[in-house]
TrEMBL record:
Cited InterPro entries: Interferon-induced_GILT, Thioredoxin-like_sf
Gene3D superfamilies given in the database record: Glutaredoxin
Pfam families: GILT
Keyword Aminoacyl-tRNA synthetase: no
Intracellular or extracellular location(s): Secreted
One of the record's GO molecular function terms: oxidoreductase activity, acting on a sulfur group of donors, disulfide as acceptor
Protein known as: Gamma-interferon-inducible lysosomal thiol reductase
Record family assignment: Belongs to the GILT family.
Species whose genome carries this gene: Chlorella variabilis
Keywords of the record: Glycoprotein, Secreted, Signal
A single GO cellular-component term on record: extracellular region
Signal peptide limits: 1-30
Record has 4Fe-4S as a keyword: no
Domain of life, per lineage: Eukaryota
């Protein structure tokens, strides 16, 4: 049963690639709305202090939201990335690629998405956090929470308690279950299909995948882009 599913995913990816590269987006111009069509599911597997992940959010995702893509996509951020659980340590502590501060910030992000499930609530907080100077990211949690209407005390309480640990386990399990496995971060998946190194063209994939009315930004000349091509991997 597994092999046909893999073939189906590969065929779907090839179709999306052909449409996206050609710049062809079928449909009639209309105001962005789902029109009864389900939103496009976009999942980001990343980590809090990865510069490429921050760049994806600020330079690729944010422009989409600014151009009216919010109503047609459902965005998820699973904050774990390239972290590993230290099996040799008795407590099984998670070791993050950019150190313990990143582990804490990953928990903060997972708590934000859990406590405030609507992307309109938690995404502005994450965007603010990703804009912080690297060495000040942890200090910016309270600042960004205040600016975006989230309860900083609740975020800290979640991250430091059992709920934060449980969310960390869930993020770890979901990241480990990716098929194919993620090879770097950010790892972006659209309707179950990984984009690989084509993350900067996310908008094209969303435009093609959505069956309802699309934002005007979907209708651009072939070869145009809403975001410039940038390096998109962090493996070590």
């Amino acid at each position: 049963m597994g092999m046909p599913a893999r073939r189906c995913s590969a065929a779907a990816l090839l179709t999306l690639l052909a449409l996206a590269v050609g710049g062809w987006v079928p449909a009639v111009h209309a105001a962005p709305s789902t029109n009864g069509a389900p939103p496009v599911n976009v999942s980001l597997y990343a980590e809090a202090l990865c510069p490429y992940c921050a760049d994806f959010i600020t330079s690729t995702l944010s422009p989409l939201m600014d151009k009216g893509f919010g109503p047609i996509l459902q965005f998820r951020y699973v904050a774990y990335g390239n972290a590993v659980r230290g099996e040799a340590r008795l407590d099984g502590t998670v070791m993050c690629q950019h150190g313990p501060v990143e582990c804490r910030l990953n928990r903060i992000i997972n708590c934000a998405t859990h406590l405030h499930p609507g992307q309109d609530m938690w995404l502005p907080f994450v965007e603010c956090l990703e804009g912080a100077p690297h060495e000040q990211s942890e200090a910016w949690v309270d600042k960004c929470a205040g600016q975006t209407g989230l309860d900083a005390q609740a975020l800290h309480g979640c991250a430091e308690g059992e709920q934060g640990a449980e969310l960390e386990h869930e993020a770890e399990a979901e990241t480990a279950s990716l098929t194919p496995p993620h090879r770097y971060v950010p790892w972006v998946v659209v309707n179950g299909i990984p984009l690989g190194q084509d993350n900067a063209q996310l908008w094209r994939y969303v435009c093609v995948a959505h069956a309802g009315n699309r934002p005007d930004a979907c209708y651009v000349p072939p070869g145009a882009s809403l975001a410039g091509q940038r390096p998109e991997r962090s493996t070590a």
